[in-house]
Specification:
heterodimer, A: alpha+beta, Heat Shock Protein 90, nine-stranded mixed sheet, 17 helices, B: about 230 residues, alpha/beta, six-stranded parallel sheet, disordered C terminus
Chain lengths: ~675, ~230
């Protein structure tokens, strides 16, 4: 074939308003764009290159999959809900489970593009079998010439068609009983007489290896048609050119800026160039929002696009498998395909990188080693459904917020957006604050078939699907009483928060008590340095003739911690970092025994006092200072402690006792000194 | 009540080992025109001596370290005055007690508990914060040995022994630190640009030149002055 052949295709079976409706199935550009990647995956591509033009007006998607013959382009790509012929049972030739089963084909990106150019080359021969009733040939000018191939490509493909066999009824014809002339069989006079009024079966092949397909689809025109327009007579929405393969490597003049693909010309390929509408271009050009950007929605348009694309196409996780296993997330280390599938993206600046699915942000990634992380493994195996993965409960809210929720991946592709499967508003109120700390990754390896379980555009699952109901029951229960794996995570998060706040309260109380004792020491020292009472105070702390005469005989107060907080045991421990540590594995809260807050000694003006807490009654003294043994006694069960609180009780008891002892009978001095001690600011 | 030992500098140094915390205490005064002069030169030199000859691990807390804007903050003084009520208000200058408490908590949190704490004062009449510093150190750091050094205990040795009951050692004379450089690495990268008074130098010019040599751009000026306690009761 020497010439380039132009063909116009028509579309039938739908009305223009239906086309417009279908083009709105994909709510965002990226959700429509992912269909192109899914097509490449289903075509057994091992590599996909996505390239943006510098002004973001076009995107080119190029893959090394099996390519499309002109017949496949017409009957599958341009057909709504088409399926690929090169599948073998449930698997592709490359033994992949196909993603697309009921896509809307070329209409997916219609809302977002003015024009699409498709280049493709399929390195294969296509076999056909046509039946021709010889009786119907009567009216032909030449009754012995039988055309066996019809359709828009018939004349263009004539040089590449080869008749393999011809049967008349059950009898196979042999040469010279017939001869081939392009897409016509010339029957001999004798053969025609034998098989008159019978059906002729012609088996022929078309060698597409010598051809490239270049098609241009005009979406502007298609979506602007009047509702009354007859699509059967539509001739010019898609222009197809069949080009000899040896010229395909040269740039081809076209309506857009399409260029010949750069893949090896001997191999099959498909290259799709999208000419974006202006609003899509503006979205992609949007700059990052000012200020602290933690959510994907606030990132730049292009980053936003890449992030969502990486979540909705079958690519491996950003953390390598070894890292996932090291963090105990080995169930996620499932290959997305039996053969490799790599997506390379080149942004407007020309920078190229591999697209991988982000699992966590840097902040949350660091929390994977945090013992406070709640990790709930999920494994479901029932009625043809096999799913595995994890729900993760983080100690802090998850950022970016787009990671919150349970992501379910089928055939490596996330279905819809991560959410809590509709139970968000039904959950008991006590659990709702913790939803922002939960995310999940579930990988479905068997079941949830695209036809019966997944909505068009993979925007969600059909609620009535039995397998989905089983998975949902396992993950979130009924959302009210039975809460499934999510309930266990939420319960643990809530329990931890409760234990932490209780432990923090115990620590704070101990610190306040200790601070009150230190304030007493500071106040006495401050007034002893320079004040009207300095001599009295210094003199008091040189004495050793004052003894306690009551509280030293009262039983010691055994300071007891609450034995448990929720399901956690409380214990004092030596090797503890910080004030306290939670051990979620053994359900223990360990308080740091060495921390200053538990110290029951006090240094005042060169003397080292022990603090003795006593279990006295209301009739016993509140406080006694024994300067003979350097011990301060406090009646810890005195009723005034309950009324005043620990801090004021400690300060008041000690200040009044010290003022009493320092004044040595001088009531005015005692009153003034006590008031001054209480008013000293030690911060 | 414990009685402070009165020792020479060399005797006090000989008793010092292990971890040492050096403290330049806050100042209580009516005004503070010393922002660029109250550098604890003696402590910085002691830091060199202790780390190089005694193998000590040394840290410094300088209450009088100016802020990055070159200001030393002031706040209400906790110390009452025996001065007449119409006398000008006295302020406490320097970093806050809260900041000091947090620093001590950090030390205990990081298990760095000093065995010795050396406290100094530039002048004898700034002695009043020494007992307060010593008291906090004793209560929060498991009773380290507190050594009082500087002009106050040298000039007013009996006073220091009597009015600072929470100090363990009162150093009655200056150590010979003339040949030792000031260890500015104790400021951990926050080395301030300021000057110091070297009050114990017998040879001002030599001292100035030596300090210029070893500690540019920080200068030490020698002043043979004797500042006496003027405000204690």
């Amino acid at each position: 074939m020497d010439a380039i052949v132009d063909l116009a295709l028509q579309i039938g079976g739908t009305a223009p308003n239906v086309i417009r409706e279908l083009s709105g199935v994909y709510p965002t550009f990226v959700s429509a764009f992912k269909e192109l990647v899914s097509n490449a995956y289903d075509a057994d591509a091992t590599q996909v290159d996505i390239q943006f033009s510098p002004d973001l007006s076009t995107i080119t998607v190029e893959d090394n999959g099996v390519g499309m013959t002109p017949f496949e382009f017409q009957s599958e790509y341009l057909r709504i809900g088409g399926s690929l012929q090169h599948r073998r049972g449930d698997l592709t030739v490359g033994e992949r489970r196909p993603i697309g089963r009921k896509g809307i084909g070329f209409l997916a990106v219609a809302r977002y593009c003015r024009l699409v150019e498709v280049y493709s080359h399929a390195d294969k021969e296509v076999a056909f079998c046509e039946k021709v009733a010889l009786s119907s040939q009567v009216g032909l000018p030449e009754p012995r010439s039988i055309p066996f191939c019809h359709g828009p490509f018939a004349s263009a493909l004539a040089p590449f068609a080869t008749v393999q066999a011809v049967q008349g009824g059950d009898v196979e014809l042999t040469l010279p009983g017939y001869s081939q002339d392009g897409l016509t069989i010339e029957l001999s006079e004798e053969t025609l007489q034998i098989f008159q009024e019978q059906t002729l079966t012609v088996q022929f092949t078309v060698d597409c290896r010598a051809l490239d397909l270049h098609a241009t689809i005009d979406y502007n025109y298609l979506l602007s048609l009047e509702d009354s327009h007859n699509l059967e007579s539509l001739q010019d929405f898609c222009r197809v050119r069949l080009i000899p393969h040896d010229v395909a490597t040269q740039p081809v003049p076209s309506a857009g800026s399409g260029q010949a693909p750069s893949v090896n010309p001997e191999q099959s390929f498909t290259q799709v160039t999208l000419h974006l509408r202006e609003f899509v271009q503006r979205q992609l050009q949007a700059p990052q929002r000012r200020g602290r950007v933690r959510n994907v929605a606030s990132a730049s348009g292009l980053d936003n696009f890449f992030w969502h694309l990486s979540r909705s196409v079958p690519v491996s996780y950003e953390p390598p498998d070894q890292k996932l296993e090291r963090h105990g997330l080995g169930a996620l280390a499932v290959p997305v395909s039996p053969i490799p599938f790599v997506i390379q993206v080149t942004d407007a600046s020309g920078e190229t990188r591999e697209l991988r699915r982000p699992l966590l942000s840097d902040t949350n990634g660091a929390a994977l080693d945090d013992p406070a992380l709640v990790k709930q493994p999920v494994g479901v195996e029932s009625d043809g459904l096999i799913a595995q993965g994890y729900l993760l409960g983080f100690p802090q809210p998850i950022f970016p917020a787009e990671l919150r929720g349970i992501a379910i991946r089928v055939r490596g592709v996330e279905i819809g957006q991560p959410d809590f499967l509709g139970v968000e508003n039904d959950l008991p109120v006590k659990y709702r604050p913790f939803l922002s700390q939960v995310m999940g990754e579930i990988i479905v390896t068997e079941g949830l078939d695209a036809i019966s379980a997944i909505m068009p555009g993979r925007e969600g699952f059909y609620a009535e699907n039995v397998q989905f109901q089983e998975l949902r029951r396992h993950l979130v229960g009924d959302g009210t009483i039975e809460l499934g794996a999510l309930g266990q995570v939420l319960h643990k998060l809530r329990e931890k928060r409760s234990v932490e706040s209780s432990a923090a309260r115990i620590v704070q109380e101990a610190k306040r008590r200790r601070k009150a004792f230190l304030d007493v020491s500071e106040a006495v020292t401050t007034l002893a340095v320079s004040s009207p009472y300095d001599r009295a105070l210094r003199r008091l702390f040189t004495r050793s003739d004052i003894s306690a005469n009551k509280l030293d005989h009262v039983p010691e107060y055994q300071a007891q911690l609450p034995g448990t907080i929720e399901d956690y045991t409380l214990e004092l421990s030596e090797a503890t970092e910080g004030d306290y540590q939670l051990d979620p594995e053994q359900n223990v809260v360990r308080l740091n025994r060495d921390a200053d807050m538990w110290d029951l000694s006090l240094y005042i003006l060169g003397r080292d006092f022990d603090i003795g807490l006593r279990s006295g009654g209301p009739g016993d003294p509140v406080c006694e200072v024994d300067l003979a043994t350097d011990t301060i006694y406090l009646n810890w069960l005195h009723p005034t402690r309950g009324k005043m609180g620990d801090v004021m009780f400690i300060k008041s008891a000690l200040f009044w006792r010290m003022a009493y002892l320092a004044a040595d009978g001088d009531v005015d001095l005692m009153m003034n000194l006590a008031h001054h001690l209480l008013s000293v600011t030690t911060d | 009540m414990s009685k402070a030992q009165i020792l020479s500098a060399q005797e006090a140094l000989n008793q010092t080992q292990g971890r040492v915390l050096l403290i330049n205490p806050p100042v209580i005064d009516r005004r503070y025109p010393w922002v660029r002069w109250n550098q604890p030169l003696d402590l910085l030199k002691l830091g060199s001596v202790l780390s190089k000859t005694h193998g000590c691990e040394v840290k410094l807390f300088d209450f009088m370290l100016p802020t990055p804007k070159g200001v030393v903050p002031r706040r209400q003084s906790p110390i009452e005055s025996n001065l007449p009520s119409d006398a000008p208000t006295r302020w406490q200058y320097g970093r806050s007690w809260r900041e000091f408490d947090a620093y001590l908590d950090d030390l205990t949190g990081s298990k760095w508990i000093p065995d010795n704490v050396w406290v100094t004062t530039l002048t004898s009449f700034w002695w009043q914060t020494v007992p307060l510093v010593a008291n906090r150190v004793k209560n929060k750091l498991k009773r380290p040995k507190v050594v009082l050094y500087g002009n106050y205990p040298v000039l007013e040795t009996p006073h220091a022994a009597q009015f600072c009951p929470n100090v363990d050692i009162v150093v009655k004379e200056h150590a010979d630190l003339t040949c030792w450089p000031a260890d500015f690495s104790l400021y951990k990268g926050h080395k301030p640009r300021f000057y110091a008074l070297d009050l114990c130098s017998p040879d001002p010019l030599v001292r100035l030149l030596r300090c210029l040599n070893v500690a540019l751009p920080t200068f030490a000026f020698s002043m043979t002055i004797s500042l006496r306690i003027s405000t204690h009761a």
